[in-house]
Structure formats: C-alpha cells, structure tokens
Design goal:
alpha+beta
Length: 182
C-alpha cells in the first residue's frame, strides 16, 4: 500500500495547523500548554492523568509512520501553541474517521477549534476520501458539543455507560456527533 501524504501545514484565517516534527522542545511546550488547562482537560480526557513531556514526545512521534492517525498542532498566527487536533480510527474502506482535540483554556470560546475542525475536514476529506466524520464527547462537555453542533454535526447517538472517566471515577455516557461529506 502506498504511503498516505497529508499536508505539512494547513492555513486558516486566524490559525494554522502544523504536522508535528517531534522534538523534546516541542513536547515540553505542548506539555506546558496542556497542563495550564489541566483542570478542564482532566474532566473529560483521561490521557492527561499520565501525561508527561516524554509521553507527549512519543505520541507526537507516532504520527510519522501512521496511515490511520493524522495529527496537527494548532497555532495562532503569532506561532503560539494553542492545542492539538487529530483524525483517528481512519478506515479507508468505510470512508470514516473520528476527530479528537483539545485546546488551551485561554483560547476557548473564540471559534478556534471550529476553524481547526473545518480546515481538517476540507483538506483531509479530499486526500483520504472521508465521507463520514465523527466527534465523540463526554456527555457533560458542553464546549466540545458546541464545537460539533456549530460545525454542522448532528447528534447521532448517546452511547450509555460507554467509557471510563478517571475524573469522575465511573463509566460515563458519550455523545456521538456525525457529519457527512458528499
């Protein structure tokens, strides 16, 4: 199978998405930005509990040879690391992929994540032939749900008792939002 080539950089109006070039400096920057928003991220995303600069370096390195997981760092036009967005569980035969993302608290509420989702949809749907995008959110994560809804996604299902949440120490519901690209 031929290697999938995705853009190194995707330009937006207010932000740009950059494929990670793994380095310990970049991993430390991403770690610092994520940890500044620890209280928010920890409510919804379990990875933050075991997060370290080393684990982030390894995560960023995992994109280099992957044909089903595509990640980008979100930067503002002043080159500030804002967060991260990825497509995972890409299945070429099903023309399907799921979004994952996080953004620093200081950038929430300004539409940056909606812009990042839109940029990824436009670029990667053409390259990968994706026709169904999915965003799954913790049932209490209203900010992420708003990203999905304002980006044109529809609530497809509520998956009852679907995933363990370390913050709540229990299995919680997940909302599944979908968008079809024709």
């Amino acid at each position: 199978m031929e290697k999938i080539i995705t853009p190194e950089r995707i330009e937006g109006e207010r932000i740009y998405l950059q494929k990670p070039k793994p380095s310990f400096e970049l991993a430390n920057t991403g770690y610092k930005v994520a940890m500044e928003s620890y209280d928010t991220i920890s409510r919804y995303l379990n990875w933050i509990f075991d997060f370290s600069p080393e684990s982030y370096y390894n995560y960023l390195s995992s994109f280099e040879n992957s044909d089903n997981h595509f990640g980008y760092i979100i930067y503002d036009k002043d080159n500030n690391f804002m967060g991260f967005i990825d497509l995972h569980n890409y299945r070429a035969e099903d023309k399907y992929a799921e979004f994952g993302y996080w953004i620093s608290d200081k950038y929430t509420g300004h539409g940056y994540m909606m812009e990042a989702v839109s940029l990824m949809e436009k670029e990667l749907s053409k390259i990968l032939g994706i026709q169904k995008f999915v965003i799954m959110t913790h049932h209490k994560n209203t900010k992420s749900q708003n990203v999905a809804l304002k980006s044109g996604y529809e609530l497809e299902a509520v998956l009852k008792r679907h995933i363990y949440c370390k913050y709540e120490d229990k299995i919680v519901d997940m909302n599944t939002y979908v968008k079809f690209i024709d």
